[in-house]
Write a structure and sequence with these properties.
single chain; about 725 residues; alpha+beta; 4-stranded antiparallel beta sheet; 23 helices; 25 strands
Length: about 725
């Protein structure tokens, strides 16, 4: 399964269109204030109103584990994205009537947690994937491609094919549609299924009999013609295989997006793009995966039966060779340890996405600790461990079988062909080149990796001598809201005591419930913060990348971690413990007091549900625009009819909501009121009064808009969301 490529990083055309629309809106509204204020308001991404394109398709699924997800598709591309339930609820609000700011507030009202960066990133990803009604144009990438493709002698399509290593047939979807309508659909009827099963089973028995007789060879009398026949059989067998995938995809009421030839491990192969089957149910996906090797099995069975019934026929030798190559291809494609049909069948059968990656990550990162800790493995963990173990055994057996096949069968055939003349030698050289191409490509890749590793070691040695990564740590600490106001000498001294830690993808940096006394800053990579609800289900609260920090409360006091933080990819983090931090700031009493006060404030705000989804930078911005207030019982907080411009969250205590002098409800710690003030200027609809001694956090609309605007970052379609499913053989 090939992953979808990023669709771009910037769009000058989109910016210009937005700018023109903003200026037109400015002229129409003629609002008060300067022109620059109006332009800033219109260009603020938090005011953007995303609208899904009318032809975006939704399909909801539920896994065996109870996890629910949704696939969405846009025909422009086409492109496919997998959404969680929470992401779908956000996407469904993108109807053009709500701004990004309004969607964030609506999501907050539903979940009780602000998800600023999550909403901003999702909007940006859908925009780049052309899921919105405004078409995204990667102007910069198009300009680079235009300059690269300029040539008087080489056609542009040839350059593009060389760059992408594939040639697509524009009429392939129409060809397979016609094949299905005019006869292909018959293969999915009950009589055809029964007949094909009989042919397949009978064919295997006939093939065993033919092998026992030993009358035929793969090359025949003429080695040159034999090699040509084998190559032609292989091409035809591959076409039958891929046609099976295409017809099954169409039978599932999905579309074939394309077909053509591509280089796979250096070998030219025929491929079918059936990514659209991700929009079908699990049974249809399994059937689509099975259809390819099953088609070959039917053809090989028919060939074996005919060869057995007509042993002296003119085509018997050809049919036998066809059966041999087809059965070999079927066995190869049904192997669940290669990224071929067998893997996809198993993945859908056990209903585990990215089974291979999950299994290897579990074995590499968590299995050892669980075994030595004598922890009981869950059902999923047993599946991952079993798959990884069987994959290792398969790799050993594959090497042994390949050695045996070469020494007993293939070497004799190659020698015979080489002695048959110059034509045979050319063909043998060509076929051997095809066989060795993956090995050569692998060797080149290995050499490249070794060269990069050696180069990296030299760089590390040089950096260790120059202490450049410590200088980098100083720069990161300077940019952090928490340590940005420290004296430069203090930041340098902190960097001198910092530790550089490395983590692999899937490896936990900290775990919920552990005692923590380290503060972390991300140098490279991406990490995710995960919490667990009462039912034991995991929830990704936020993602962190370079320059972000976590675990800041450990600098205040040694406490248990409230969330698990794990790496999504190979990552490096700077770590500093509380003892070192206190020693560095021992002489900076005033700075230390200010820092501790900021940590107390961050800890206090982080404990409130609405702010658990914010990263440290967004949290610091919110705190800078917020204010703490204490109220005595019966003291009024807001008055009905007053102008509303602030939002309130209750840290402790209880308040009464009063409408027209009648108490309507009581709100306790963790609750909130005044959220409408984040969206528009309207009078307060109720009076709120403290019922007990109450501590409240207040922040205004302008601070909220600034934080949301800064949450927008350039993004690409994430690999966990963007999908592709090409059968490549």
């Amino acid at each position: 399964m090939a992953k979808a490529e990023p669709v771009g990083e910037s769009s000058l055309g989109g910016v210009h269109a937005h700018l023109r629309a903003a200026l037109r809106s400015r002229r129409r509204r003629r609002s008060k204030g300067s022109a620059w204020e109006g332009l800033d308001r219109e260009l603020n991404p938090s005011n953007f109103r995303p609208r899904l394109a009318a032809d975006v398709e939704f399909r909801a699924f539920t896994r065996r584990s109870g996890e629910r997800y949704t696939m969405i598709k846009t025909p422009r591309g086409p492109a496919y994205v997998r959404l969680t339930d929470e992401e779908r609820s956000i996407v469904e609000q993108m109807d053009g009537s709500r701004s990004v700011k309004e969607i964030v507030v609506a999501d907050f009202r539903r979940t009780g947690t602000f998800s600023l960066s999550a909403v901003a990133d999702l909007v940006d990803e859908l925009r780049q994937g052309n899921f919105l009604d405004v078409r995204y144009t990667p102007v910069a990438e198009m300009a680079v491609a235009e300059r690269r493709d300029r040539s008087r002698f080489v056609p542009r399509w040839v350059k593009r094919a060389g760059r992408e290593r594939r040639i697509t047939f524009p009429g392939a979807p129409r060809f397979f549609d016609a094949m299905y309508r005019y006869g292909g659909n018959v293969f999915f009827t009950r009589p055809a299924a029964v007949l094909s099963a009989i042919v397949s089973v009978t064919g295997v028995a006939a093939f065993v009999v033919l092998l026992g007789r030993g009358k035929f060879s793969l090359l025949g009398a003429s080695a040159a013609s034999g090699l040509l026949v084998l190559y032609g059989i292989e091409m035809f067998s591959t076409f039958v295989h891929e046609s099976g995938h295409a017809l099954a995809c169409l039978n599932a009421k999905r579309t074939v997006n394309g077909a053509g030839f591509m280089l796979y491990l250096g070998i030219p192969i025929f491929f079918i793009d059936t990514t659209d089957v991700w929009m079908a149910d699990r049974r249809a996906r399994i059937l689509t995966s099975v259809a390819g090797p099953y088609s070959e099995c039917i053809m090989a069975g028919a060939a074996s039966v005919i060869a057995l019934l007509l042993p002296a026929g003119p085509t018997t030798a050809f049919l036998f060779r066809f059966a041999v190559l087809s059965y070999i291809a079927v066995a190869q494609n049904l192997t669940p340890f290669l990224r071929l049909d067998g893997y996809y069948i198993l993945m859908d059968a056990v209903d585990e996405a990215n089974l291979r990656e999950q299994a290897f990550e579990f074995v590499r990162t968590d299995l050892r600790g669980k075994v030595f800790g004598r922890e009981k493995l869950t059902r999923r963990e047993k599946l991952f461990a079993s798959y990884a173990a069987m994959a290792g055994v398969f790799a050993i057996l594959a090497v042994l079988f390949s050695t045996l096949f070469w020494s007993r069968i293939l070497r004799t055939a190659v020698r015979s062909a080489w002695r048959s003349g110059w034509v045979s030698r050319i063909l043998v050289t060509f076929l051997v080149a095809l066989v060795l191409a993956p090995l050569i490509r692998g060797a080149v890749r290995l050499a490249g990796r070794l060269a990069r590793r050696v180069q990296a070691l030299f760089r590390l040695a040089r950096r260790a001598a120059e202490k450049t990564w410590r200088a980098e740590a100083v720069e990161l600490f300077r940019a952090l809201p928490l340590t940005g106001d420290l004296p430069e000498e203090a930041r340098v001294e902190i960097a001198e005591h910092v530790r550089l830690l490395r983590f692999q993808g899937g490896q936990a940096v900290v775990r919920a419930g552990e005692r923590g006394d380290d503060f972390f800053v991300i140098r490279t990579g991406t990490l995710e913060v995960v919490t667990t609800d009462e039912d034991g289900a995991e929830r990704v609260v936020r993602r962190l990348d370079r320059g972000r920090s976590f675990g800041e409360i450990a600098l205040l006091e040694s406490t248990t971690r409230t969330a698990t933080v794990r790496a999504l990819e190979p990552s490096q983090v700077f770590a500093i413990d509380k003892g070192t931090f206190d020693r560095v700031l021992a002489d900076e009493v005033e700075v230390a007091d200010d820092l501790r006060q900021q940590l107390v404030s961050m800890s206090r705000v982080r404990s409130l549900g609405p702010f658990q989804g914010l990263d440290d930078a967004d949290l610091a911005r919110m705190i800078r625009g917020a204010a703490w207030h204490s109220y005595a019982p019966m003291e009024r907080i807001v008055k009905q009819g007053d102008e509303a411009h602030s939002f309130f969250i209750i840290a402790s205590g209880q308040v009464d909501v009063i409408e027209n002098r009648r108490i309507k409800r009581r709100i306790g710690a963790g609750g909130y009121f005044g959220d409408t003030a984040l969206l528009e200027n309207i009078p307060r609809t109720a009076t709120v009064r403290a019922a007990t001694p109450t501590n409240i956090l207040e922040f205004d609309r302008k601070s909220f808009e600034k934080v949301l605007a800064k949450s927008f970052r350039k993004g690409k379609l994430a690999s966990s969301r963007a999908l592709s499913r090409d059968w490549e053989h």
